[in-house]
Amino acid sequence: MKKGKIFSGMRPTGRLHIGHLSVLENWVRLQEEYDCVFGVVDWHALTTSFEDVQSLQQRIREIALDWLSAGLDPEKCDIMVQSQVKEHAELHLLFSMMTPVSWLERCPTYKDQIQQFGLQGKEINMYGFLGYPLLMSADILLYLATHVPVGQDQIPHVEISREVARRFNFMYQKEVFPEPQVLLSEVPLLPGVDNRKMSKSYGNDISLTASPEEIKEKVRLMITDPGRVRKTDLGNPDVCVVHTYHKIYNDVEVEGIASDCRKADIGCVACKQRLAAKLEAVLGPIRERRDQLLAKPGIVDEVLAEGSRKARARASETMSLVREAMGVKG
Ligand code: SF4
């Protein structure tokens, strides 16, 4: 007996990195307990990157391959592509008729992002960008999701989908949509190797499918305690990127390493070697699964086509209820 229904998605921004792993590990757990639909939300990618479409299909395949490599199982969840289920667009359109613009404008990420992208010289003051929390609500509600796994910063988006569900049910006097609950996930924020935000564009990420050599090289580049110049200097692990990673991936040794660092009983080279070994233990199996999947050409397209087909069947049932409530024909 499943605990409820879940929809969650990611934009196809390219190959994933280790910073995405905790979200994926959470999804892998949730697929056992909930009836899950996981979507590659390609229309969302267009809200901020509408000019960058050359590699979109490639990026969709890459992200799906990473999901499968990390342990998502198409026998246990539906893995779909948003644009292959046109009902997302229809529900978004119908919701847009009954959603006050002020709900979207007050979304905390909206003004922040407009400003952030503006500073980068990028124009995203577009109709689609304003409406993206509503498209997100359509994504969630289309599958009658009862739960949405999110980090703290995304709670306002789930709140909009709850408000939209409430308004729809009240306005059309039909209990079509459940109000989805937040399933708060602890997602530790991993810095890039240079202690900035981890991003492929900065080159400071560790790819989910990095080779053992790439892992060693990225760990070698990690910023350590800048006050520890010589091995005999006492260290401060609290300001060291390597230590941040040990805390997440090496819970058995982390306390001992921190204590040894403070007493200068361990050098940074040895400390990094231990971390690289731990990261390889986590990423090695993901890389192996990816290699196995790559040996089966067409497998990712098949998974996405089948997942989208199942998602369309679910979406079609919901849209019948929505159209009937709103008095429109399909
Ligand atoms: Fe960082 Fe480890 Fe060096 Fe201490 S010993 S400064 S925790 S890399």
TrEMBL record:
Family matches, as Gene3D superfamilies: HUPs (3.40.50.620), Tyrosyl-Transfer RNA Synthetase (1.10.240.10)
GO CC annotations on file: cytosol
The UniProt GO MF terms for this protein read:
ATP binding; tryptophan-tRNA ligase activity
Q: Which reaction does it catalyse?
A: tRNA(Trp) + L-tryptophan + ATP = L-tryptophyl-tRNA(Trp) + AMP + diphosphate + H(+)
UniProt entry tagged with the keyword Repeat: no
Q: What class of enzyme is it?
A: ligase
Q: Per the UniProt record, which EC number(s) apply here?
A: 6.1.1.2
Tell me the keywords, alphabetical order.
Answer: Aminoacyl-tRNA synthetase, ATP-binding, Ligase, Nucleotide-binding, Protein biosynthesis
Output the GO biological process annotations, alphabetical, semicolon-separated.
tryptophanyl-tRNA aminoacylation
- UniProt keyword annotation of Ribonucleoprotein present: no
Report the family membership: Belongs to the class-I aminoacyl-tRNA synthetase family.
What this protein is called in its record is Tryptophan--tRNA ligase
List the gene name. trpS
